[in-house]
Amino acid sequence: MKLINIGFGSMIVGERLLAVIGPDSAPVKRMIQEARDRGMLIDATYGRKTRAVLVMDTDHIVLSAIQPETVFGRAGDSGTEEEDS
Known about the structure:
The protein is an alpha+beta fold. The chain is built from two helices and six strands.
């Protein structure tokens, strides 16, 4: 199990991460609002500006205050070691 730091001491399980996207487009904003309405939104920004939206395979949406490129880079640090399956 690989944990990915998404900022301010918050971690997610790397195997559960489906997508890392920016928060600025209208479809993403709708996705965030729908997750909030369903109770499936996790806000890990600690009051800062949302810079990355993480889509999990559990149908949760996680908001992070670090850049999508940073999350992607942290997810990719040794994330390719299980390709032999």
